[in-house]
Amino acid sequence: MLKKTITGILYFLLSFQLNAQSILRELIDISTSNYPELEAKRLETEASRRQIQFERSGILPSLDGSYQMTYSTNNNITGMFFPGNILPISGPPVSENSMDFTYGSAASLLMNWSPFTFGKRDSKIQSAKFIHELAKHQESLSILEHQVRFTEAYLNYWASESMVRSAEKNKNRFETNLQLSKTLVDNGLRPGVDSAQFRSLYIRSKIEYLQAQKAAEAMMARVRELLGEDQQNISLDPSLGREISILVEEPEETHPLLQRSQTNTLIALSRKTELNRSLMPDLNLWGTAFARGSAILFEGGFNDPKDGLSFSRYNYGVGFQVAVPILQFARTSKLVQRQNSLISASEAYELQVERALERDRAIARVTLEKALESAQLAPEYVNAAEFSYQALQARYDAGLINLNELAQGQADLAKAENESIKVMAEMWKALLYYAAVSGSIDYFIQNLN
């Protein structure tokens, strides 16, 4: 029974520790899912995917239906036509000018199909695919940038809350020393000015504590804004207070910024292909069926104007049309030359992005190495300052030193604690920076856990 109880307690503690270590990761996931800007990027990516489907649908024929009804003069045997998809039926002129009005009607089906486009359709589909890839890389880049912003804001919040706790400990030390000095003064072991000085220092520590709380609240507001969720509980991740020893495997993914630049080059090349293929012929297959109704008689005049509302003539036709842009070669060549310049410019931007990322990785690597070294020294710094303070406090209690020496020792301890918090925060920020320039927040999260 005892063994089962101990096992249950250990399991609970292990589960609690695992849950505690995943606080920041859970908040990053929530922020990625809920932030409005990222939702907009996801929708833009979906829109670009739909554009591919639209370009592919160009293989389908078009079929337009049309119907007309007119009430007009009858100076032509066919009456009047409105512009549209109905092919006009001409006829001989009437024998004399007439202002009599009659009805006319017409209906048609007009089909147009371009099954062969000599590569034009394929080039548009390919361009749409590259634009979709660009949208995906832009979405990935936006997600990475937001995750970095949110994590940095959370680290600032963690540091601010840690500063609050440090300020509270410092305030409590002053409060303890104030009570101690009163006792020593009452017993005649210390001058009365010591109590007054400790009270002044205690009040100042309370002010610093309130200022630290104000700074923490401001950081919390920033975190909540980037989280995109107002009801989510935001607590401190305990794993941020520990040292880290890198490392899991370094990321080898291509940075979304470089992927975006490479895709821009591919889009420029694809548009050049579109321009070249625009000089190819257009082949269209046509089919039509149309009917015409007119009250006008062949010899002129009419019996009943309403006779034109019913169809009296039917026609059908099929055929094909080939159109060659004979005089477009000169103009298109200028556009191709322009596109060549844009391709070269895109390749130059791509090279610049690659060089900038290499520089940033080198800086991030050195920054992380030095931050890790500093983080290893921070606990020793705090321990030494705390040991010194305790020794000074014992000497003050024994009447061997004055208040100023003890106050300086306490100030050194508070400074060491604050510097240690800053060093730990900078260490995590350095790791975050390294993950950001490597192209994936996962590297940071793996080391976090």
From TrEMBL:
Coiled coil: none annotated. It is found in: Cell outer membrane. Keywords: Cell outer membrane, Membrane, Transmembrane, Transmembrane beta strand, Transport. InterPro entries: OMP_efflux, TolC-like. The keyword Transferase does not apply. Gene3D superfamilies: Outer membrane efflux proteins (OEP) (1.20.1600.10). Belongs to the outer membrane factor (OMF) (TC 1.B.17) family. This is TolC family protein. It comes from Belliella marina.
